[in-house]
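Human: If only I could read backbone structure tokens as easily as an amino acid sequence. Take your time, and here it is.
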Amino acid sequence: MPSLIVMRSSAFAAALLLSSTAAAWSPDFDDPRWPLDALGRSCADVDTEPGVHLRWYCDARGRVAGVRMPVDTLHVDTSHGRELHAWRDDGSPNGRWLTVRLHGDSVLFLHHATCVNCRRVLGWSYVLRLDRLTDADLAQIQSELGLPGAPVLRRAAAWDAALDRTFPER
């Protein structure tokens, strides 16, 4: 009988191992649905390779509400979104710019380059679901962009107004 118990335990362990590895999801950067296909996934299932500079934002239910990545690695067509803001600092020796596009009612694509003339373009891109981000994450993101951390900006119109005050368009 002990061999039957071991066999059943081994089968159970194998089933657990297979089910846990099958649930893992890694972003496919060549997929035209990236990064929108990440939004709403379970944060526990997201798996990225070491060295990939992605910052995942999870909502209160443990679902992906946003992602941050180096500005020069987000190569997706955002032309389907409505432009909320476009700013360029031509007076900066390194070149800086910020573009914000709205996809649907609540997903923002933000591209903030802080050094366009550097060997590697520096800055961050964000894809954010405004209605799902935690207040703490949203306040942190706003601060990273040079916006006040409070109040948190949950609507596209609030982002547009705050961006107009901080990054006047020319």
Observations:
- Strands lie at 55-58, 64-70, 82-89, 96-103, 107-115, 122-129.
- Residues 1-22 have pLDDT under 50 and may be disordered.
- The chain has one domain: 2-166.
